[in-house]
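Input sequence (83 aa), recorded before submission:
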Amino acid sequence: MGTMNISLPDTLKSFVDEQVGQRGYGTSSEYVRELIRKDQDRLHLRDLLLKGASSRAAAPADEAYFTALRERVQSGTKPIARG
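Predicted structure, token format:
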């Protein structure tokens, strides 16, 4: 595991220390790692949303679509591939 040292103003260091104590992190490093992981997840989700927004719609998401989706979930069957 690599090491990184960061400098923080006193107000930010106090905030980090409070979060570590209040949220049950063992160290400030654990807290910062969690923040970085959440940012990675956010960026990944953003990429997926942008990819989905720029893709062509496969079928309308109308009442029939959601009815079929509910039935599939309740029966445990896999979706039908659309081409």
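Checked by second reader. Helices lie at 10-23, 28-54, 63-75.
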